[in-house]
Amino acid sequence: MSVRQCGFVAQRGAKDALYDAIEIVKQGLKRKEIVVVISIDIEGAFDNAWWPGMINELENKKVDRSLCRLISSYLLDREIKLTYAGHELNPLLTEVEGLGTYIQAYADDITIIAKEKSAKDLEKELNPVLYHIINWAKKRKMKLAAQKTQAILITKKMKFENPKIVMGETEISFSDTITILGLTIDADLNFLKHVDRVTEKAIQLYKKVAKTARTNWGLNPEILRTIYITVVEPTILYAASVWGHVANKKQIKTWLDRITRTFSILICKAHRTSSLISCATLARVLPLDLRAQENADLFRIKRGEPLERLPGRELAKSVSPYSLPHPAKRVNQTYNLINAEADLESIGND
């Protein structure tokens, strides 16, 4: 399996996929390059997966026979439809990586990132890759939805031309924003659109909760606090590992403080004119801008990356599961039994 397949893989997830993608974009911006991000949609990838092709790919990759037989048994005389998320994309990731273009996948969502100095160079790099992907999909009886394919151009250059990117017979148009795995990415890479969207969702949730939580009746403070911590915070802090570094920006902090204060007033039954700090303290909640930065720092620590707040200190890194051999091929550890009674008798005689 490709290391760029992040869906349903041990020690990998949507946060890793988004973080890696944004880091690639930032590298291109530092080099003053034009970065193009394309999100490809596969029509009914789970429902239309071609099983004989999948088994053939496993055999070509010389996957352990026990695993091949296990997967084949799921497909034999089955009465329900079963799909392994992302299996059909692994061969594609390996092939496109050989072309020199960054590609990653989460289940059936494909993201392609290219960065070059000019629009012509981007056309030379991306159009062959998209042509290769289309042919790859045809061989495996899969259909790509060119109309649903999203693309965005990100650059710090003042003067530039939009590259002509073609997918089949359809020219891909560039938009101001693109949504990948629930994260809205804008051309300025300031994540204002994303934070605006998630805070609006939180406001709509507040309106529903407020109907059942009045000053003298309704939900008690502990239930409201539980709803806030388990529903509101995860909704807003999704992918904070990517955008947490901009949480202290004025506009974003204003939006986040608004949500914190609104729910804190509801939890502690305070007056509407109460301050943010007072309400947050009484409600025992942490302001969302600090929570976002906390999530971002914890994510980087888990990945073993250094932090500016901890200079000169090395962090323990987790071992990638891809560095371990298959369980069927691992060497059994030998061991010996110690005769404790004999040792005790020899000590007593001495």
Automatic annotation (TrEMBL):
Question: What is the superkingdom listed in this entry's lineage?
Answer: Eukaryota
Q: Which Pfam families match?
A: RVT_1
Instruction: Name the InterPro entries on file.
Output: RT_dom
Q: Reverse transcriptase domain: from which residue to which, for each copy? A: 90-183
Under PANTHER family, the record lists: ENDONUCLEASE_EXONUCLEASE_PHOSPHATASE DOMAIN-CONTAINING PROTEIN-RELATED, REVERSE TRANSCRIPTASE
Protein name as catalogued: Reverse transcriptase domain-containing protein
Q: State the species of origin.
A: Parnassius mnemosyne (clouded apollo)
